[in-house]
Amino acid sequence: MGEHAVRTVLITGSASGIGWAAAQRFAAADWRCVLVDRNGAALDRLVSGLPATAGAPHLVRVADLTQPDQIAALALGAPALDAIINNAGMSDSSNVPLAEQGAAQLARLVALNLDAPARVYAALARVLRPGARIVNVASGAGLHAIPWRGAYSPSKAGLIVQTRALARARPELRVSAL
User: Fold this and answer.
1) Is-catalytic flag, 121?
2) Is residue 138 pLDDT above 60, yes or no?
3) Who has greater pLDDT, 147 or 34?
4) Which of 53, 69, 127, 134 has the lowest tally of Cβ within 10 angstroms?
5) Catalytic residue among 20, 26, 121, 152
């Protein structure tokens, strides 16, 4: 099977948790994984334990997705993609209400939970195969606010609405929030 026929998924936040589990499942189903996280050592451990695909090796991309230039760099040499799983995100355990949250803390949370998925899509739109899937990992907190968690609930609510808007704008893609 040539590289052009290999199903390929890019998974952000793949060094742990849901992203790690998703990488395991996709690789076991013979998908090539492009693994994105800011923790390079954890990515190396993950990729070394993944089953090999029949057509192409898994790829590791170390990136801090709060940095727009590092997101844009994901497009350099990116393979054709059948799916993007925007899983990277952060919670807010500060126990501070939104009105009292500091500007820097708010900016970082919004940059990762809300801005990054849109920027990842924009950076990689040109390499999406027809009918590609975009899955944005949201949260029930985006539907029912969690008190004392700062901007977490608003950022996830924004991601849900952003997902709906992308689905309407790009009906040829399969766009959903999880």
Assistant:
1) no
2) yes
3) 34
4) 69
5) 152
- Which pLDDT band, with edges at 50, 70 and 90, does 148 fall under? low
Scan for tokens 């998974």, then name that residue.
11
Check if CATH label 3.40.50.720 holds for domain 3-177.
yes
The pTM score is: 0.92
Buried b (16+ CB within 10 A) or exposed e, 17-29: ebbbebbbebbee
pLDDT in tens, 101-115: 778 888 888 999 999
